[in-house]
Structure formats: C-alpha cells, structure tokens
C-alpha cells in the first residue's frame, strides 16, 4: 500500500515566479559584461578582466537557470518523465560551480604572473566601468535575492552576483589607489582577492549540487531520526527500506516500508506516518508501503 503527496508544483512555481526578475538581471548583466570585457582590454586591468569573467559566469548561470525553468515547465507534458526535469536545475548549479572555479583559478595564475612586472593600467576608465558594474550588480542582487531562498539554481546565480558585487568594490578600490599613487600592484592584488573569494563559495555550491545528484540524504536531516520517528508511530512494528533524498531545491523525498502489528488499521498508520514526516521533517512527498505483520515476510529487502 503506498501514499505520496506531491508538492512539486509548489517548487516549480517558486522558480517560475522569479522568471521575470531573472530575465531582467540576465539582460542587465549581459550588457555590462561586454562593457567590462572591452574596458579590461583597453585599460589593461586584470582586476577588471576578472570581474568581467565573473560577470560572464553570472550571465551564463542565470541563462541556465532560465533554461531549467523553461524545461521544467515543458516536462510536465511528458508522461515518461515521472519526476519532471527538476534535476536540470541542479545540473545547472553544478555547471555554474565548475565554470566559476575555472575563472577563479585563471585569475589567480594570471595575477601571480603579473606580480613580477605589473603593467600600467588606465585608472580613469577602469574606475568608471567598475562603478557601472557595481550599480548593475546591486540591481541584479536585489532582483535575485528573494528567489535565492527557494531554489539552489537561483541561489547559485545570486551568490555569483553577490561575489561580483564585492569584486566591483575591489576594482573601484584598485582604480582609486592606482590613480592616486601609481601603485600598479593594486590591480593584480585585487584580482587575487576576487579569486580567493570565489573559490570557497564555488566549493560549497558544487558540493550541495553533488549531494543532490548522488541522492544523499539532506544534510539537515538525520536518517536515523526519521527512522525512529516512523517506528514510534502507533501500530508500527518495524521500519525498513527507508530512503531519504532531495529531488531538487526544497523538495525532500522519502520512501519506506512499515510493518504493522496484527489487527492494526493500515489507513490509520499511513495517515499518522505521513503527518509525522510532514510535521517533524517537512517531507511532503513520501511513498510508504504498509505491510501487515502476517505478510511482512513477502517483502524482499534491498541492499541499497
């Protein structure tokens, strides 16, 4: 006997609600990315180039988020995709992490090379473009902030914009130092700071995405606690074949077999178990097989 309460539409709607803001952030950052890239080569600024590269990953990340939202919406019409395409969101987040890490490593290598003989940098144009980049990131940050709480993919884009915002502040500081003191080392120094700031955030995002893809239990849930709570449901004699995983952001999923005491009403056990999962662990998508004690031996246990 099974039961499942699918709240996947709520998760999908959470992403769809923010699609308009994503498009606005995408367009704004794409324009500024081109401006920063051109200015970086014109001024010779590695810090500005690193900020442009970071902004490129912002644009790419938001673009993948939009693609995932579109694919998820369309997947509902395909009966073969019983879970939709929610994992595309997680794959996009993982791709973001990989790309962002690659940019950070490149910036660090180039910055170390420049420390030996830092080239001259045009501080004036560098400052103007960095200020424009800061303003663009502030707007994008505000647009993405709400959605970052509901979606790992949106959170990836949001974190990238946050890092880019701080990076723009660093570029502004480097431009001011160079303009006032002609200390050219400020440019590669800020570039190193941006790279070191990016790497740990990239690691955390990639780790979160990989945990979902390998179907590990959510970090905030203890599987033993879930097991013990189900075992404490009145009428449940044994809990086995318990699995807890994350389908996509905000959608924890569980499945379990519940062996009941003789003469217990299976429907009552099922309802109580679902209520326990919802109230104690916020698991709303659960498939539970209730096995009366007399037929428990029919169930074959897996080695998962």
From TrEMBL:
Organism superkingdom: Bacteria
Transmembrane annotation, as ranges: 22-49, 55-72, 84-109, 121-144, 156-178, 184-203
Gene3D superfamilies attached to this UniProt entry: Cation efflux protein transmembrane domain
Main location: membrane
UniProtKB keywords: Ion transport, Membrane, Transmembrane, Transmembrane helix, Transport
Membrane topology of this protein: Multi-pass membrane protein
Cation efflux protein transmembrane domain sequence ranges: 22-214
Family indicated by similarity: Belongs to the cation diffusion facilitator (CDF) transporter (TC 2.A.4) family. SLC30A subfamily.
Gene source species: Micromonospora chalcea
Record domain Cation efflux protein cytoplasmic: where: 219-292
Protein name (database record): Cation transporter
One Pfam family linked to the record: ZT_dimer
Subcellular localization(s) per the UniProt record: Membrane
SUPFAM superfamilies with a match to the protein in the record: Cation efflux protein cytoplasmic domain-like, Cation efflux protein transmembrane domain-like
